[in-house]
Every structure is written in structure tokens, then in C-alpha cells.
Amino acid sequence: MSCSYHLAPSMELRHLRYFVAVAEESSFRRAARRLRLSQPALSRQVRDLEQELDAKLLERGSGPVRLTSAGVYFLREARAILDHVTKASVEVRRFATAQGLVLNIGCITPALFSFLATSLQVFTQTHPQVRVNLFELSPAAQVAALRSDCLDIALLGQTSRNLGTEFQLTVIQTMALEVALPEAHPLASGRSVALKQLAEEPFVGLSEETYPGREDWLREVCASAGFSPRVNQRVDGLATLLAIVGSGAGVALVPADTKNLPHPHVVLRPLRGPGAFFQFHAACRRGDARPLLVTMLEEFKLQAARCVERQRAPSGKR
Known about the structure:
By secondary structure, the protein is an alpha/beta fold. Helix content is 41%, strand content 22%. It is elongated.
């Protein structure tokens, strides 16, 4: 559940701070000393707040100041508002300092040819004071760099679900799957391929050492069509995978944006099947909600969506 707070027209943050101080000190005298105000001035400000709210917040008497039922409720809300303002102020200060004006981003090769280049162009135009460092790394190397605080964002592609327990995962893009086939393969002559047609085919996969979780994902996709893939060869990168497929050694499942990469002697065909999709994930450290990082992730999602729209549009309308 999300909450939004709105201050009444004549209510200011100082009124909340004054009220919270009195509630925490249970005394106007001690709260005034803490706030470096005169006691009459503090009392007047709290009364103004009560009049604005049309509610009595404090029980005044000869003993300690006590909260009314309305005061107990309002204390919780006032603290939430002040906490939110404090956190926002800290983030803005981080945004404005040199330390907060650098983003280190890791990526896999396909991202360079789809949403990434445009995202960086738009981001640097709107945030000229920010330096973005880009590192082309395997998913495994990116995960290691995240763990050592060398990266702020890792663009991993389809990854292991287990990483979600360690990092914050964001789906940047959901893409259709295609099957990479040797150009002489019988299925290459069709317009599309049903996933179940690949049940007896040898597969070329990506190694767990460089693409953790990718083989588990392949098995899940194939299981949706009722078979387990026979992975005959595992390689360390997408370019190598396409070369091996082109040699005739097997078939591979790849995201639709693979068509942007060179793929000699390989035919790409759309894949039909219940699990025929690929999710491109970004990972960042849990709890890292810096405005720059959040803005960059949103830009990735926006440009990724536009890439899909352009691919779907008729050629004359692009």
C-alpha cells in the first residue's frame, strides 16, 4: 500500500518538527531548549497546528505533556513525513555531489545493439553532469563486479532466479524467442518453428561459468513443450554460439534481438510455444535507490519498449 502526504495550506514542516519534539520530550520546556526556541513561541506554534487540524493533539497540565488519541495517530504520520523529507534531502545531496555523478554499468553484447545506445544518448543529454562508464562483461563477471561494488547496474539478460535473493532484479524487456538453425537445416525453410519440433535436436548452450542460470532457463522453456533439451556443446559467448550453430553442430534458442548481431550461415526463425519468451534483467544492489540509478533503469525500460514497437511497426511507419 502506498501513501501520499499533503500538508494543509498554512501548515509547514516546522510545525511537524515542533510537535514531534514536544511529544518526544513530554515537555514544552525541554522541547523549546532542544529546538532553541522560547517556550511561549513553541506553545503558540503547536496551538496553531492544532487549530489547523481542528484536533487536540496534546493534554497539557501540571505534569508531563501527554498525547491524545489524535496526537498518537498524528505523531506516527508526522514522523513518516519528516523521515521521507530527510531521505529525499539526502538523496538530492548525493545526486548533486561528484561522488553521486558517476554510474558504472556492465552489459552483455546484445544490449549494445538494441536499447542501450539510445538510452545512454538520452540520459547523457538530460544529465550532462553525470559520467557513465560502460563495461562489456559476461553475466558472471558482472555479478562479481556488483558484489565488489565495482558496478552500479548489471545488464545480464535472462538470468538465474536465485540472483533475486541477493540483488534487486528489474525486467527491462520481455522478448520473443527465436531458434537459431544451420542454414541447411530442414526447419530453416519454414516461416516459424514450433518448440516441440526441436525435441530431438542437439542444442548448443551457454556455459554456466559465464552465463549462470541460462541452462536452467533453457530446460524450463523446453519443459513447457514436454521435453528436455540434449545440450551437446556449451560455449562462453553469443558470437561463438552462433558460429557453432552455423557450422551445423546444433540449434540454439536466442532472443529476438540476436538478429542485430552477425550470424553467417545461421537462419533465425520465430519460435512458437507456451514458454517462448526471454526476459532481459538488470541487477543492482538491494536498497540502492539513488535517483540517478532509478532514472537510468526507467530509461532502459522506455527505450527497450520503443525498440519492440519499431520492430512491430510496418516498414513504412518506422
